[in-house]
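re: ur question from yesterday

yeah so i grabbed the chain u mentioned. its 550 aa long if i counted rite. heres the sequnce exactly as i have it in my notes:
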Amino acid sequence: MAEIIKMPRLSDTMEEGKVEAWHKKVGDKIAYGDIIAEIETDKAVQEFEADVDGTLLYIGVQEGEAAPVDEILAIIGEEGEDISALVDGGAEDSAKEDSSTKGTESASEETPSSDEAKKIDPEISENIHVVSMPRLSDTMEEGKVEAWHKKVGDKVAFGDILAEIETDKAVQEFEIDVDGTLLYIGVEEGNAAPVDSILAIIGPEGTDVSSIVESGGQLPENKKEDQSTQIQEKVAQPKSETKSEEPKKSSEKSSQTGRIFISPLAKKLAEDKGYDISDIQGSGDNGRIIKRDVENYEPSVQTQSDSVASTSSATAMPQPTFTAGEDKTIANSQMRKTIAKRLSESKFTAPHYYLNIEVDMENAMAARKQINAIPDTKISFNDIIVKAVAMALRKHPQVNSTWGEKEMTLHGDINIGVAVAVPDGLMVPVVNHADQKSLTQISAEVKDLAGKSRERKIKPEEMQGSTFTVSNLGAYGIESFTSIINQPNSCILSVGAIVEKPVVKNGQIVVGHTMMLSMACDHRTVDGATGSLYLQTLKQYLETPMAMFL
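ran it thru and got these C-alpha cells back, copy pasting raw so excuse formatting
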C-alpha cells in the first residue's frame, strides 16, 4: 500500500523546507533508512531518510524548490502501483482543512467518486511514498535543491542519497528511507520549495502519478502537465542500462538527465581549481563526482593551455562578468533571506545602544606568546577574548540574559556565539559552557566549528543556544565597528584589530598595542551602567589575563 511522505516539521518554528538535492529518482527502489533527499533550512541542510520500503513513485518538490510543512514530498509504494487517486485524496484532505467552513459544497468536493474510490486501493496506495520537504532547523521556511543524485525511473533503496538540500547555513545530503522507484521529482535542481512541499514520489515502477502531481505539487498549472507527461515517459522506458555503462563521465550523464551529480565539497574544489565539471568522471554513486575525483583529475593539454592563456589574460586585465552599465540579478540564497529577516527584526525590535572601550593588549600578547611556546599548542587572540568574555559574564549575569514580554531570563549557562564569515553570508556557531573550558579547548572547538561552517556541514544544534555573541573583524584591519544584536541575546561584542600606536604610560609616551571593543546592548535588559561595568571587568581580564584564572 502506497504511503505519502510529507514535508516534516524539523523544528518548532519551521514553516517550509527546500529540496537541496534528491538522491533518488522516480522508479528507484527504496529501503528503510535510505537517504532520499537533502532538505535545506535557514540553518543547515539535513539528510532525509525514508522510513518505509518500496519504490519511489512520485516526487512532489523538485530540486531547488521549497514547500510548506505537511505538503506532499513524495509517495512510496509498490512498483507499478496507481497513485493518482492517492494524490487526489491528499489534495482533498488539504482542501478540507483550508475550507472547513464551506459546508456541503466543501464536503461534496472532498468525497471521492466511485471511480476515485477504486483508485484508492489499500494494496496499491500503501506502496506509494510521497517525500515532503523536511524542516531541518528551527527557523527553516524553505529548502533549495542543490543537486539530485537520482533521476526519474531510477531504483532507490533505503539509505541511498537521493539529493542535496541547501539551507542558508549548509548543504546536506538527503537520504531515502524507503525502497522503490523514483516516479516524480517535484523540485528541480537550483529551485527552492517551502517546508512540506512535495519533493518526490516513490513507488512501483510504471505507476501513474499524474494525478498526484496535478493535485499535490507546487508547480504552476502549465508545468504540471509537462511533469506528468515526463513522468509517464520515463517510467515507461525499459531498463536497458548495464553495469558497464554506469561509470560514465559526468558530461554524458548531464546530456541524458540535464544534471551533473557532484558533491558540494567537490563542486567548490573544482571551482577553486577552475575545472569544468563536465570533463570530470565521477566515481561515486551513479557517477557522482566526489572530492577524490576532483583531486585526481588531470586536465588535458588543450585544457591546460587554454587555462594558462586565460590566466595570463586575466592577469593583464581582469575580465568583467557582465558589460559596463549592465545590472546583474542574483537570486537570494536561504542564508541571505534569513540574515535579512533576523537582523531586521532585531534592529527594529530591540532598542540598541552602544558602549566603546579601549584595551591595552600588551600583556595578552605576551601571554599568548608564552602559551604558544608550549609544544602542539596554538591559540589565537580571539580564543583569549572568548574566554575573557565568558569569565566576565560570570560576574555580570544581567548581561547574559534574554528579554521576554512577561519576564526576563538570566541564563545559568554561558554559551558564546562566535560569528564566522562564509562565502554567502554569516554563521554563528556556539561554544557551550565557554567559562568552564580551557583556552586550548576553546581554540580547538572554534576551529572545528568554523571549518564546518565554511564547508556548510555544520549541524543546526551546533548553532543553537547562544547567550552572548562575539564578532571579530580585526583580521580584516577593521579598528572599530558596531554590530546588530544576535537575538535572543542581550548583547554582542564587536572586536577590532590590535593597533600599534603611541600611548601614555606612567606619564611617558611609548609605543603600545591597543584594541577597541564596542558592545551593542538591548536596553530592555541591559542598562548603560550594567553594560559599562561588564566592559570594565572584560578590560581587566584582557589587560591582566592571569586574573581570569584566580
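noticed a couple things. The chain is about 30% helix and 25% strand. also The longest helix spans residues 221-236.
anyway ttyl
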